[in-house]
Design goal:
- This protein has one domain (25-233): ECO RV Endonuclease, Chain A (3-Layer(aba) Sandwich).
- α1 (25-39) runs antiparallel to α2.
- The chain is globular and about 65 Å long.
- It has a six-stranded mixed sheet with strand order 1-2-3-5-6-11, with helices on one face. It has a five-stranded antiparallel sheet with strand order 4-10-9-8-7, with helices on one face.
- It has five helices and eleven strands.
- Helices cover 24% and strands 27% of the residues.
- It is an alpha+beta fold and 244 residues long.
Length: 244
């Protein structure tokens, strides 16, 4: 009997190639950040701000996620949006991305962490990460992480994307460092790829910044006068109701 003919499953292409942001993206991002600088007393741009801004810029939907891997959605692509600080974002080469809490004690019932082979603990840490990624990949064709690297004053920014990957545990060696944190190193290059902290179970990815990242510099806007803004809105005391 010849094999049956099966319907092919059409894969959805992402809305744009990796790191090839829409043409209006740089100007739109600058506009968003200048607005924040003008309306906030201190230069602040937190994770939720970045998720919301990025979703607007690409025409996506902002959906804060408990897993943290699908905060922004567009068609069959999901993004995790992260922010990190750097003195000069345009020249930064590597970033550390905090990527959740992976607890072998909770997930694998391992209590004696320091008495267990570090490679076994590392395999468990990656296993937890991979399980999260696989659960989100089951819902979307494409899974990415978009990173905003920001200076303290928010006047210099760099942005890049990477595919959110599953990691093969056999490709890494694990060792304890002087701070009693577990480090994962690539077996072929000896590059430091992961850090896991036993106290709090924080898992960190260490990523190279691609050469085709986007970088922009902004001019400091004058702050908006609060009283003038309220006057423009015709604010008066009737806007405030004491209910208790």
């Amino acid at each position: 009997m010849k094999p049956p003919k099966l319907r092919t499953v059409e894969r959805y292409a992402p809305p744009y190639p990796l790191n090839n942001f829409p043409s209006n993206f740089p100007l739109g991002l600058g506009r968003e950040v200048v607005y924040l600088l003008a309306t906030r007393i201190t230069p602040r741009l937190e994770g939720a701000d970045w998720e919301e801004i990025f979703s607007r810029l690409i025409g996506g939907r902002w959906k804060p996620s408990n897993v943290g891997l699908d905060d922004v959605l567009l068609e069959q692509t999901a993004w995790s949006a992260k922010t990190v600080k750097a003195t000069t974002p345009s020249t930064a080469k590597r970033v550390r991305l905090i990527s959740g809490r992976n607890s072998p004690t909770y997930s694998y019932d391992v209590d004696e962490i320091r008495k267990t082979n570090p490679n076994e603990i590392g395999e468990m840490v990656l296993g937890i990460w991979n399980a999260r990624v696989a659960s989100v990949r089951a819902k979307y064709e494409n899974l990415r992480t978009v990173v905003l690297i920001k200076s303290d004053d928010l006047l210099e920014l760099a942005i890049f994307e990477m595919n959110t990957e599953l990691y093969q545990s056999e490709s890494y060696n694990w060792r304890w460092n002087k701070r009693n944190n577990l480090e994962g190193l690539d077996k072929q290059t000896n590059a430091h790829c992961f850090t896991w902290q036993p106290h709090g179970s924080q898992f960190t990815l260490i990523e190279d910044i691609p050469e085709n990242r986007l970088a922009i510099r902004l001019r400091q806007p004058p702050p908006l006068d609060r009283d003038k803004v309220l006057d423009t809105m015709e604010f008066d005391d009737s806007w405030v109701e004491i209910i208790d």
